[in-house]
Each structure stands twice: as C-alpha cells, then as structure tokens.
Write a structure and sequence with these properties.
The complex is a heterodimer of chains A (225) and B (415).
Chain A lengths: L1 E5 L3 H12 L4 E5 L2 H10 L4 E5 L1 E2 L2 E2 L1 H9 L5 E6 L4 H9 L4 E4 L4 H16 L5 E4 L2 E4 L4 E4 L2 E3 L3 H12 L4 E3 H9 L11 H15 L6 E4 L3 E4 L3
Parallel strand pairs in A: 1-2, 1-3, 3-6, 6-7
Antiparallel strand pairs in A: 4-5, 8-9, 9-10, 10-11, 12-14, 13-14
Chain B lengths: L2 H54 L6 E2 L3 E7 L6 E10 L4 E14 L2 E10 L1 H48 L17 H49 L7 H31 L7 E4 H11 L1 H6 L3 E6 L3 E4 L1 H17 L6 E6 L3 E7 L25 H12 L2 E7 L2 E7 L2
Parallel strand pairs in B: 7-9
Antiparallel strand pairs in B: 1-2, 2-5, 3-4, 4-5, 6-8, 9-10, 10-12, 11-12
Helix pairs in contact in B: 1-2, 3-4, 4-8, 5-7, 7-8
The chains are: A alpha/beta (225), B alpha+beta (415).
C-alpha cells in the first residue's frame, strides 16, 4: 500500500516515514504543495497525509485538486491548528480524517488503517493476527474461528493494538484513542489497566496466546510469540 | 457630586456673599447721600437765620414744627459749629425718630447764643429702606434667572462630553465598535475626543498585535512540540531501553502533552474572544451533560465518584461546540478535584447549570476563573475554568463559584 506524506517539517516527515515504513506501507514524501501535486499526478495513493500549512500555499488546495479529479485517495489532514472550524472545513472539502499535532504515531497508523479499510477493501474487511481475526464490518472478533464477546472499549483497544503490531504504544496514546478528547492524558490513566486486563482475560479464555506485553513505565506492545 | 453642582454651589455662595456685602455698602452710601442733603438744607436754614439777624438785629422766632425746629439757648463759651445725628422719642407715635441737627454759636447785641436747627430724617430713612427692599427682590430674581440660563447652557455645552463618556463606558477592546463622539466646536471637548480616539486606536493596535503574537507563538510552539513528540514515539521503539528510561520518557511525554494542551487552550481562548464561534442553534445542555458523563464513565469509576444528575431539560441558543466545551470543562474540573467516594451533583434547567463537588476548603473565589489559576493540589494547567468564563462572557451568561457546606458549587445562568 502506498502513502504520501505532505509535510514541510523535515524531521516530522522523516519520523512518520520511519514509523510507517516498518509496517506494510510504501511511503513517498513531499515537502511542499508543488511537489505534492506532481506526485499525485504520478501515483494513486491509498492515503495522503496532508499538512495544511505548507510554504507554498495551503494543503487544502491539494485536497481540492484530488476531489476535482474525482480521485479516491484517502486524506488525513495533519495540522497544528486545533480549530474546530478548520476541522469542519477540511472534512467538508472531502478529507477523511483530521489529526492535530502533536499526535501519537500509533494513532496515525490506526487512522490510516481505518481509512484504507473503509476505502479500498470494500467487502474484504477481515484483519487477522495469528489466531485472532476481526471482521470490522460486523465488529466481530473470533479466536480460532470461535466468536469472542468484547465490550466496545475492548474491541477498540484490540483494533488499535492490531493497527500497531510490534510497536510500543503509550498509555496516553491508548487513552487519547479510546476516550477522544473528553479525558486529558494528564488527568489520570489508571482505568486503562482494567480494560487491558479484561481484554487479556477474554482472549486467553478463548484459547488465545497472551500477545499483549506490558512495557513497564510506559505502555503496551502487541508481540508475536 | 457633579462638576456642575460644584460650580453652582460656589457661585450661589459667592453671589450671596456679594449681595450681602453690596447691600451693606449700598445702605451706607445712600445714607451718606441723604445726610448730606439734610446737612445742606440745615446750612440753608442757618444762612436764613443770619440773614434775619442782619436785617432785624434780633433773633428770629423760635419755631417748633414736626419736621423742623429752631431754638436758641443763651450760653457763653467758645464759638463752635457742628452737625450731629440723634434719636428723639416721639410720644405721639410712640417710637424714636432719627433727626439731624446743626448746632452753632452766634452773637446778638453782645449776647452769646447757641442755636440749634433740627430736622427729622425719618422720611429719608423710609425712602432708604424702600430702595433697599425693592432692590433685593430684583437682585434675587436676576440670580435665579442667571442660574437657570447657566444650567441650560451647561447641559447643552456638556452634551458632547457625556456622549463621549457613555461611549467610553461601553468600550470593549475585543469588539469592533469604536468610540463614538459628537462633533463640537468647544476646543476642550474637541481635544478630549481627539485624544481619546487616538488613544483607543493605539490601544486597539497594541492589543491586536499582542493577540497576534499569542496566536503566532502558540502556533509556532506546536510544530517543535510535534517534533519532540514524534521523536519520543520513535525512541520508545528502541528495544534496548531500560525500564527507568521508559519512566523518564513517560514524564517527557506528559510534559509535552501538557505544553501542547496549554497552547491549544490559549488558541481556543483567543478564538472565543475573536468571536469565531458564531453559529447559534438550539442546544440541550442536559443531553450534553449525559453524553459527557457517559464518555467520562471509566474515569469517574476509577476515581470512585458517584454522579447524580437531576433537573429539567431546556434549549439554549448558542454554538454547539462552545456548549460542549463549557459543559465538559465544568465536569472535568469536578471529576479532577474530587476525592474518592464523594458525590458530584449536576443540576440542569433551561436557565442554569450547576455542578457541585465535595471539597475541604474554599478556593479563592475572586481568582478561580483567572487564567493559570490553580488550586494547591491541581495537576491541571488552570485554563479550563477561564475558558468557561470566556464562553459565558461571550454570551452574557452569568457565572459564579461558591463554597458552601464543604462543597464547591459552580453555576452558570443562561440568561
């Protein structure tokens, strides 16, 4: 799968590239909108990460160009601007998602995955990881082809972990993902333990190996045993 | 006390003093003139007496009329001539009357006499009082007329000043309306208006550049923060990291997120101030409360809090995003600052929203809504409640904090 990262901040672009390349993605990058426009001429992308503040204009122009050409590339706006109106404008213009800087790479990966699933794999929405498989259309989880009952939060948690396999995921990232903006990660995150513990228990009871490893002091990691 | 009243007070006191002194002076002046006239008349009588002696070589007959008397007394001594005033009791009218007399010595047939010519000045005195008493009401009337003319003129003349003043009172730095003034040809007011306009213009420019600075600074801070954050995301993937390093990284993470939260909230405050949230729609506060409480359920459970929601539902006309921020900040504040096992009571109605949580001692109620104000135990950044205040001010809602019976009570009235 092919991604385009349009981001003028070199360091940030390089890190995103590094994080995503380790997964199943081929990544291109563009540092300005001219570069980005010529790249979307050449390739169709599964997902375009679009910074709005580019040195030669707004990223929204690229979005408009994509929509103008009736392209089906997924678009995630990544912007330093937390404004709700910007978010709404971006989504109105046809962006699929909006992410505010700074963000967790794990969050970005999960969002990309969700968009690609939605856009590209219509009808084929099953994610598999060893004996775990998830049908994202019906939100059903099964272990060794036997269904497991999970709560909404547990399901989201599992999906998030599967979007970032073999990566250390911070508790703050998990909380941001599961509870959106209603809880600041600075507030308190003891309650994430409960959900992880319950998820582990349910998976193990269904005969699943314990793939969720606790990384002490910071968070969790989905490991391949 | 108004400036005009000060003026009026001073001018009335001044006028009364002047009137009083002037009356006394006027009295003495008129009195002098009258006395001089009488003295002249007495001198004429004296000349007649001398004429008579010259012609007849004897004293004239003594005469005693009511208003003029002439009599002689035989007496030796040095010769003299003098005018004097005296009061004589009149038994018929039962009152003392003032008189003026000329007393002088004269010699007839080697006999020395003292002659006295006396005139009543009672009619002159009456005239004097008549003049004084008729002048007084005239002066008083004049004063009253002058007072009213002055008052009318002052009202009219000071109008530009009051127009400017009421405009200054309504002045709001973040609102686009400027000060309105009334054109005037009074130099002082013209200068005042010009100075105020140029001052507000400068203040507004400074304020805008400050606001732009806050805005730009917040934006510019966000990018390096994103880079730090991103580097940390990469760093924690290193397999050789030890546990204590992870803990350090966790702290860096949370500080980065805190900093980014502060800049985002400052940006939000600026946006509310700039009235960038202008949508108005019917918003149900109680459904937002329910929605938020559901979202925060896990947090509330882990903090071992008991949430009680009661009251009625009502629609409020405001921006939905702002309503959500308002509710969520109040609820988060309550959850964040409650100790385990206590209650959070939320009361809603069409007119108000009240969030109550348990506490030990009162917060500084004059500062609790200030930016960056934090309670002693607070881990927040002290912007949540100032955002609540800013939103309320935007819509003219009244907001309040109260500490009663070991409870912090935050109330917003949507009126």
């Amino acid at each position: 799968m092919r991604l385009l990262i349009v981001e003028d901040e070199n360091e940030l672009a390089a890190d995103i590239l590094l994080y995503l390349r380790q997964e199943k993605y081929i990544c291109d990058r563009a540092l300005n909108s001219r570069d980005a426009l010529s790249r979307i001429e050449m390739h169709e992308y599964d997902c375009v990460l679009l910074d709005l503040n580019l040195p030669d204009g707004s990223g929204l122009a690229i979005l408009q160009e994509l929509k103008h050409k009736n392209r089906n590339d997924g678009v995630i706006i990544i912007s330093a601007n937390h404004s709700l109106t910007d978010r709404i404008n971006g989504l109105k213009l046809g962006a699929d998602d909006y992410l505010v800087k700074p963000f967790h790479h794990s969050e970005l990966a999960a969002r990309i995955e969700a968009i690609i699933r939605r856009k590209m794999h219509a009808g084929h929405t099953v994610i598999s990881w060893n004996e775990i498989s998830i049908d994202t259309q019906s939100s059903e989880v099964s272990i060794h082809e036997k269904p497991v009952e999970l709560t909404g939060k547990e399901y989201q948690l599992l999906l998030f972990l599967l979007a970032n396999p073999k990566k250390v995921i911070t508790r703050a990232a998990l909380i941001n993902h599961l509870w959106n903006e209603s809880i600041d990660s600075e507030d308190n995150f003891d309650f994430i333990y409960t959900h992880i513990k319950n998820l582990r228990k349910k998976l193990q009871q269904s005969g699943c190996k314990d793939y969720i490893k606790t990384v002490y002091g910071i968070g969790y990691k989905l490991v391949d045993k | 006390m108004k400036l005009q009243s000060h003026y009026n007070k001073a001018s009335v006191i001044g006028a009364i003093c002047v009137l009083f002194i002037a009356t006394i002076g006027y009295y003495f002046l008129l009195n002098n003139v009258l006395t001089d006239q009488v003295d002249d008349a007495l001198a004429v009588e004296e000349a007649e007496v001398y004429d008579y002696i010259k012609k007849h070589d004897s004293l004239p007959d003594e005469s005693v009329y009511e208003d003029q008397q002439l009599f002689f007394v035989k007496k030796t001594g040095p010769s003299f001539r003098e005018f004097n005033s005296l009061k004589i009791y009149n038994p018929e009218e039962k009152e003392t009357e003032s008189h003026r007399q000329l007393v002088f010595t004269l010699t007839v047939h080697n006999e020395q006499y003292v002659a006295t010519i006396r005139k009543s000045t009672e009619s002159g005195q009456d005239l004097l009082w008549l003049i004084l008493f008729s002048t007084l009401p005239m002066v008083l009337l004049l004063m009253i007329i002058v007072y009213f003319i002055k008052r009318y003129l002052e009202r009219k003349l000071w109008r530009p000043f009051y127009v400017t003043l009421s405009s200054i009172k309504k002045f709001n730095l973040s609102a686009p309306q400027n000060i309105t003034t009334q054109p005037t040809n009074i130099t002082e007011f013209k200068e005042l208006n010009e100075s105020i306009l140029s001052m507000t213009d400068k203040v507004r420019k400074d304020y805008q550049s400050l606001r732009r600075f806050t805005d730009n600074a917040s934006h510019e801070i966000q990018t390096p923060l994103a880079v730090i954050h991103s580097k940390l995301d990469i760093l924690i993937q290193q397999p050789e990291l030890k546990e204590d390093s992870m803990e350090l990284i966790e702290h860096i993470y949370s500080s980065v997120e805190k900093l980014s939260g502060i800049t985002q909230k400052l940006l939000l405050l600026t946006k509310i101030e700039q009235q960038q949230f202008s949508n108005k729609e019917a918003v149900s506060i109680s459904s937002i409360v329910n929605e938020k409480i559901t979202e925060m359920q896990d947090w509330i459970k882990s903090a071992q809090l008991n949430v009680v929601i009661h009251g009625t539902d009502g629609q409020i006309q405001m921006d939905k995003d702002l309503a959500t921020i308002l509710v969520s900040n109040l609820l988060r504040n309550a959850v964040q600052h409650s100790s385990p096992g206590t209650d959070i009571i939320i009361e809603t109605s069409a007119e108000h929203l009240e969030v109550t949580n348990a506490g030990i001692e009162s917060l500084d109620s004059s500062r609790v809504f200030d930016r960056f104000f934090k309670g002693d135990d607070s881990s927040g950044h002290g912007l949540g409640l100032s955002i609540v205040a800013q939103i309320c001010e935007q819509y003219g809602f009244h907001y309040d904090y109260e500490f009663r019976k070991d409870k912090h009570i935050f109330t917003v009235w949507f009126l």
